[in-house]
């Protein structure tokens, strides 16, 4: 697809969402949502249940097609694209519920994340020589030396995913997303259902991915401790409408945000229901 002539390209922003409306039947799930994510930041999206947070991510990676508005990634209008065209651009995603192949090993699940970038021909792949073999060896080296090591999952690499506890499965899903070599990582409630130790581990991994790999992160999370500790900016949705956006220190004391969260006086350490 060619670069559109009428674009709002701004080198400072990796992602721009402009005037997004999303309707299901007669219900507005998102109403005129506009926001921008700077390259290299951790950007959190928060809000009460049903606020439209996941729906906004679904619009970004094209699972949903907005009724109105446009979405730009690296200055390119990606609104017309289909879901399978999004990962090769450098946008990876994890989900609220773990979406892994439970009967496959950890390492095989992770390797599937690189599938969108493999371009070996049918002949070389079928006989496993030349480019196909070199690609496989390079992929295995990167996964084992970078991703597995970063997320501290060496001890489970050969285990079947279905035998693992929930916290480790979430870690494997994050590893698979990293195997896609993302520029933008979309994390949908990465610490939901985890205990304190698991939550601290995932928060540390997110910071490592951001700091060491230079990946821009969009984070949906109900754990306000995590949000306020690691985010650069926070966007707040309520009933599909953006009601606030800014640094965590401003958001935690914003009257509109406090009202949306049923009168919480300080959001910093409160845990909101999933």
Task: Write a concise synopsis of the structure shown.
By secondary structure, the chain is α/β, with parallel strands linked by helices.
Explain this structure to me?
- The chain is α/β, with parallel strands linked by helices and 274 residues long.
- The chain has 2 domains: 1-90 and 182-274, 3-Layer(aba) Sandwich (Rossmann fold); 100-181, no CATH class.
- The chain is built from 9 helices and 10 strands.
- The protein has helices spanning 53-60, 106-112, 122-127, 131-150, 166-178, 196-213, 224-230, 248-251, 255-260, and strands at 13-24, 27-38, 42-46, 68-73, 76-77, 91-93, 184-188, 216-220, 233-238, 241-246.
- The strands form 2 sheets. Strands 6-7-8-3-9-10 form a 6-stranded mixed sheet, sandwiched between helices. Strands 2-1-4-5 form a 4-stranded antiparallel sheet, covered by helices on one side.
- Helix 2 packs parallel to helix 5 (166-178).
- The chain is globular and about 50 Å long.
> Structural class of the secondary structure composition?
alpha/beta
* CATH level-1 class of the largest domain: Alpha Beta
Largest sheet: 6 strands, mixed
The residue ranges in which pLDDT falls below 50 over 5 or more consecutive positions are 1-10, 120-128, 269-274
Label the overall shape.
globular
Strand order in space, largest sheet: 6-7-8-3-9-10
Helix and strand run: EEEHEEEHHHHEHEHEEHH
As for the number of domains, it is: 2
How big a fraction of the residues is strand? 15-25%
Q: Please tell me the overall pLDDT.
A: 84
Radius of gyration: 19 Å
Number of helices: 9
